Amino acid sequence: MIGVLAIAFFRVQVLRSERYQVLSESNRLRAVALPAPRGLVVDRSGVVIAENVPGYAVALNAPSEDDLTRTLAALQPILQLDSARHRDVLARYGRAPSEPVVVIRDAPFEMISALEERRPWNPGLVIQSTPRRRYPFGQAVAHVLGYVGEINERELASDRYRGVRPATLLGRAGVEQYYDDRLRGRDGVHFTEVDALGRTVRAEGIEERLAPEPGETIRTTLDVRLQEFVDSVFPVGMRGAVVAMQPATGEILALYSAPSFDPNAFIGGIDPVAWAQLVDRGDFPLFNRAIQARYAPASPFKLAVAAMALRRGIVDIDSHMEIPCRGGLQYYTRYFRCWAVDGHGDLSLREAIQYSCDVYFYQLGLKIGLDSLLKDAVSMGFAAPTGVDLPEEKTPVFPASTEYYNRRYGARGWTNAVTLNLAIGQGENTQTLLNMVRHYAMLASPNGTAPTPHLVEGEQLERESLGLSSSDLDDLRRALIAVVDEGTAAGARIADLQIAGKTGTAQNAQGEDHGWFVGFAPADDPQIVVGAIVEFAEHGSSVAPLVTQIMARYLLRDEAGAADAAAYRIQLPRDSAPAPLSILPDSVLLQGIEPDSTRGTPRFR
Fold first, then answer.
1. Cis omega (within 30 of 0) on the bond before 136?
2. Which end of the chain is least crowded, N or C, by CB within 10 Å?
3. How far, in Å, CA of 127 to CA of 168, rounded?
């Protein structure tokens, strides 16, 4: 028996000593992750728009769930955890019981001080300095930058996040989400020594630590000063969006959605009550109306119809229609009205654009024909997303062919009257604001092409084309100049700055009509194209001053010369304030019309 024991001891202490030493060390040492700072996000001039500041995280080492529960109860007067957060801590512990479980990610200094005083009685307490995300420009950049949030169980189980540890912060919207892999960095690690009960014995000088690798700095094309200006002049209390872009490069200078929210509220985990308030608000502040809302494009779409007719040689800029505008057009049994009740009279194409005559474009649409109109619109990009480097961009709604109508209404359930609606930017046609801005970038380009809109320098630059000659493009630009100089946007003129643009009033069955304006400046050498949609603004002429002041701010850089922002705020009558809509599934179709998310939730016209 002594011989057997001696052999067993020799085997354990000599032959297998290395293995047991490793096991002992792994029981003695606990690896504590060192979160990597997320990469900075800067604007085109290098101004930091998303940064990291010092913060404190509170974690606990515990040998069992019961021990963790007892420690949490002892520290509850300081931690002040509600039942939901208490359950979340226990769930985290269950996922990785051998690691310190994060209790509070962003603890105030007063809490840290109080916990440090109680460390002798709570040896499993781990307090470490961690980088905390901060957005210096707050709500002005909320939709374009997004925010960060802790990885969830579904994401931990996915292949995309294989190897990512629990409690890692991920981008949840905007640039933070789209470029998360580049911004996230790689966590480091250091070790603490614990006793048999899991209590911390030593935290320093145990093993060589592995320093975290910060994420990559992302330089965007944004002009944050222009973005701030847009936030300051957008009509208070109203909903909508603004996009400003360089037409030659596709670089997005500003992308703004209203109402907005404070992305700093998500740092360290947003309070459930605050989250519920954001989600339940009837104006849907988390909804990015620049790329996710789809609106009837209204009169700004008339320039696409004009481009189709010019490209096919159906008309030229001086062509007149057979029937003058007398306030409407009788088409078989239906009467299609013009917005001008008294009519516009006999107009050329240039004048029809200038005064936005519906009757002229009804007839122009019929001359083009439904098949050709659908084909050309698809080739111009009205049935596809722009491909911008932001998550969850919505695809515009536009029929690819007449088969769409056959599926929706049956082969005999529709007539060619749908052409009249499409020709004035209504009907089965809903576009995102960014898609309309891209179209006007084509009109502003010397050769009628436009690159893919993008937010990060060096991204792809696919080009789409209108297929127009330089003379036809010049004719359309002169017509757009006339819109601002003498037409429907005459009230938005800016001294010493020639602007080309188009107003629009989108019909809205849910309340007052929505107002559009999309344009570019200087008209002879476009440096910026800006589009805005303001919900329930009644008409586009009230939106035009907002856009022209943004152009002036960017091009003139003269705060004293720019008009007072308050003078351009659009006032919504008190009795016309819209009521919140109920949430409807995005897949629902009604009367053959695709959902139109103009107020943060799918809608129908």
1. no
2. N
3. 17
pLDDT at 318 over 80: yes
Assign 433 to helix, strand or coil. helix
- Cβ distance 324 to 339 under 8 Å? no
pLDDT at 87 over 60: yes
Residue 585 has pLDDT above 50, yes or no: no
Half-sphere exposure of 506 (CA within 13 A, CB side): 35
pLDDT given at position 153: 78
- Please confirm whether the linkage preceding 396 is cis (ω < 30° from 0): no
Give the amino acid at 279. V
26's tokens: 């792994």
| The pair of three-digit structure tokens given for residue 34, joined into one six-digit string | 């060192």
| Mean of pLDDT values over 194-213 | 62
Ramachandran angles phi, psi of 287, nearest 5°? -85, 125
At residue 27, the pLDDT reads 58
Tell me the pairing of strands 41-42 and 218-219. parallel
Six token digits for residue 224: 């944050």
- 530 vs 117, residue with greater confidence: 530
Encode burial over 212-245: b for 16+ CB neighbours within 10 A, e otherwise: bebbeebbbbbbbbbbbbbbebbbeebbbbbbbb
Residue 339 tokens read as 């917005």
For 249-303, what is each residue's pLDDT tens digit?
999 999 999 999 999 988 877 777 788 888 888 889 999 999 999 999 999 999 9
Q: Are 452 and 387 in contact (CB under 8 A)?
A: yes
266 phi, psi to nearest 5 deg? -90, -5
525: number of Cβ within 10 Å: 11
SS (H, E, C) 148-211: EEECCHHHHCCCCCCCCCCCCEEECCHHHHHCHHHHCCECEEEEEEECCCCCEEECCCCCCCEC
Residues with a catalytic annotation lie at: 299
Q: Around 493, how many Cα atoms within 13 Å sit in the side-chain half-sphere?
A: 14
- The pTM score is 0.81
Buried b (16+ CB within 10 A) or exposed e, 88-123: bbeebbeeeeebbbbbbbebeeebbeebeeeeeeeb
* Residues 543/531, Cβ–Cβ less than 8 Å: no
How many other C-beta atoms lie within 10 A of the C-beta of residue 491?
11
Burial label for 498, CB within 10 Å (0-12, 13-18, 19+), is: middle
